[in-house]
Amino acid sequence: MSIRDAVLANLKKITDPVSGQDIVSAGVVRALNVEGDTVRFVLEIDPKNADKMEPVRATAEKAAQMVDGVSKVSAMLTAHSDKAPPDLKPKPKPSQTGPQAVPGVERIIAVASGKGGVGKSTVSANLACALAAEGRRVGLLDADVYGPSQPRMLGVSGRPASPDGKTILPLRNHGVTMMSMGLMTNEGQAVVWRGPMLMGALQQMMSQVQWGALDVLIVDLPPGTGDVQLTLSQKFKVDGAIVVSTPQDVALIDARKGIDMFRQLKTPIVGMIENMSTHICSNCGHEEHVFGHGGVAAEAAELGVPLLGEIPLHLDIRVAADGGAPIVVSKPDSPQAEAFRKIARDLIAAGKA
Ligand SMILES: Nc1ncnc2c1ncn2[C@@H]1O[C@H](COP(=O)(O)OP(=O)(O)OP(=O)(O)O)[C@@H](O)[C@H]1O
């Protein structure tokens, strides 16, 4: 186990007195940095809890110190307000054209799929939580207006507040700051989203939601190659796209269309993920390939894009997502969670997330 993983494992044993979760899952541990035998991290807290959190800081420092190979630890408390992170967005100049960065957001990664139902939202939720567990500041925008699923997957309910009528306060769980376009409409009300409306809503999500400072904003796109994909890539500087596919031919044909679209839009392709790869029976351990296996690896090789990982088809992944705590949070040590966590670690190591 690396020093970083061992430190994270020790920090996970400490409870955040505010949320009741462990301090890593609660997103309190930030900017964990290991250099040789020196470990540094910050605990991001609401300033009004400073007194309560000082003993937690001292315990966290000791916990990191216990790890073999660590000789120096620096843990600091930094102020953060869950309710209203500082608005880091200067008003855009009217003369600005072309794709823009979102101030305060270091990178935007789009998660796309050619075909619906291949597990794009499940992958987005697990990647977001896995990156947060590694200490990254992560935002997740559910841009799937036709079937928003992130509130359920991340276990958040309620509607986002807008105290001043201008800014929108996102929701937060498992260390991930989340906003869903589906939450902007009335529950149970079918909405026909037309192109201009979608464009307006997406821009509103980027510029009016108080994301705070983020290392990475993951955008869970609707399936296919429609208006949301176009608007996102044309209006905002998208640093990379991940295309999720199952191994079947029908899904792969659509995944190829997705990759073509991003290439035309000049959005760098981070890679492909095969979801619902091998299935291992939870009763007998028998391995079978429900949708085939390796189809995405072959397609990725043909298209010249990296294969980021293969996620097994496993009942626990669905049950966890339906239960509001993705598998990387509810069973972080399972092989299923490890498949997601490895992708997250590789993305960080490659400077992509
Ligand atoms: N690896 C997996 N193992 C088991 N179940 C999975 C896996 N990936 C996704 N699922 C399940 O498949 C269903 C569809 O997944 P999900 O909603 O993530 O797909 P999607 O591609 O985002 O769909 P849509 O196109 O409708 O937005 C969900 O019930 C989810 O829990």
From TrEMBL:
SUPFAM superfamilies: Fe-S cluster assembly (FSCA) domain-like, P-loop containing nucleoside triphosphate hydrolases. InterPro entries: FSCA_dom_sf, MIP18-like, Mrp-like_CS, Mrp/NBP35_ATP-bd, NUBPL-like, P-loop_NTPase, YlxH/NBP35. Residues 81-90 have a biased composition (Basic and acidic residues). One of its GO terms (molecular function) is 4 iron, 4 sulfur cluster binding. PROSITE patterns: MRP. One of its GO terms (biological process) is iron-sulfur cluster assembly. Keywords: ATP-binding, Hydrolase, Iron, Iron-sulfur, Metal-binding, Nucleotide-binding. This is Iron-sulfur cluster carrier protein. The lineage of its organism: Bacteria, Pseudomonadati, Pseudomonadota, Alphaproteobacteria, Rhodobacterales.
